[in-house]
Amino acid sequence: MDAAGLLESLRRIPAKIHMAITGFGALGDPAFIPLVMGQMQVPELARPAGEAFSMLTGVDIAYQDLEGEWPERFEAGPTEDPKDEDVVMEPDEDLLWSDVELIQTWWEQNKSNYKTEPGISWENPSVWKPFKMYLKMAPSASRPQLPSNWP
């Protein structure tokens, strides 16, 4: 199984999609940009998708004025309510919100500058090393089951 295949499998598991989106960014293949951009429309995934877009393109969302606003009625992380038992900090709290329309316009104007890589494979160490490092940092409960031939 290649890296893209593993991530595609993770993307189909609701509890793992956040990890998959980050992984697509770590792979660095612009072929995943449309997929990542599609996730920017899902509030729970918008910030990691924006971060993945930055990793894939090298664009600084803030510097290029591609930032968006916190979506209306979207709540994340602990609230100010003392009765709220959810005290887990929001894992994406330091990530920027992207303006999807501005990102789409930027991509249409710049996509010709990006080549896609056919057949990204685990055999290329530049592919799996960053992803492996990311997986080591992920909480054990959210780590995927890796192939037996994992390097």
How would you summarize the topology of this molecule?
Layout: H1 3-11, H2 17-27, H3 33-39, H4 43-57, H5 100-110, H6 125-137
Helix pairs in contact: 1-2, 2-4, 3-4
Descriptive notes:
The protein has helices at residues 3-11, 17-27, 33-39, 43-57, 100-110, 125-137. Helices cover 44% and strands 0% of the residues. The chain is built from six helices and no strands. With 151 residues, it is mainly alpha-helical. The two termini are 12 Å apart.
Write a compact overview of the structure shown.
With 151 residues, this protein is mainly α. The protein has six helices and no strands. The chain is 44% helix and 0% strand.
The largest sheet, given as strand count, sense and whether it forms a barrel, is: none
| Fraction of helical residues | 40-55%
Order of helices and strands: HHHHHH
Low-confidence stretches: none
| Coarse structural class | mainly alpha
End-to-end gap: 12 Å
Radius of gyration: 16 Å
How many strands in all? 0
Q: Would you tell me the overall average pLDDT?
A: 75
What would you call the shape?
globular
User: Total number of helical segments?
Assistant: 6
Quote the beta fraction: under 5%
